[in-house]
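chain and backbone:
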Amino acid sequence: MNGDSQFILGVRLSAERFGIKLGETKEICKKLINTNKIDFLDISLWDSFKKPEEEEHTEKSLLEHFTELDFKDVQLTVAGNIRTGKNVYEILNNKVDFVTIGRAAILHHDFPERVMKNPNFEPIDLPASRSYLNKEGLSDKFIEYMGNWPGFVGK
């Protein structure tokens, strides 16, 4: 942890899309790192395994654009299409300190434990039934919300 704080401070940024420019996000990252006031940066890549959408940046993967930065004492986590044990270890083997899991953790409340026990862990196939999602701890309201994600919730 940075400073005398009793808590960990992180900042989440989207790498691109929705009018966000990759170069600008990288500059913001550098500024945040240099403040020495944050513990980690959480970069939402949407898909950790793809090339950037902006043509001028497609010479390397979106992930590489961030792992090449000098993070000094700040840790890096990324999110985006990390759904299997293989995905987790691929990201962790690319200069990322920890991963942020979304969809896979919704499907499996114990996803990290499963991946640590089985590096080849694969989540259940979609769509997931409402009863399955309830058993994983999702409320009816959250399942209703997840129904907005095409192909996620079945009957």
About this structure: Residues 5 and 37 are 10 Å apart (CA to CA). The radius of gyration is 17 Å.
